[in-house]
Amino acid sequence: MAEVKTPLTPPLGLKELDEASHIMIWRTNSEHLCDFVNEALLRFTGGDFENLAGLNWLDLIHSQDRERVTDIQVYCRRHHIPFRNEYRVKTLENTFRWILDSAVPQFSQSGEFLGYLGYIIDIHEQKMREIELKLRQSKLEKQILE
Hints:
The protein is of the alpha+beta class. It contains five helices and five strands. It has a five-stranded antiparallel sheet, sandwiched between helices.
């Protein structure tokens, strides 16, 4: 079998695609500390890498979501399983927006756990429509029961 070599530089256009993308990418190491974020995530949060490195990213999670998010991620990381979670984070504009955060564990060829690779998508408008729909449904049900 031919050996596959990883290029030392990203494929042509990948940097430009990353800079134009709204998909936010992050990575943690085997100690679960954030060691990489892409430009889209930096633009979204308005921070620099130091503000997101290590465990600092937890400070951006809405206080009402933080415990739930932490519990889910601790469990998944303990068992090295993928996770997918919706929660609110503070943005550049100092407002909170709903995001979908998905990640998969990364392993070396020998099976050693290396950390997680994840992506984040801004789902705020979709989530607001969902909440509004639930409120309308609740009001209709209440009217029917009266």
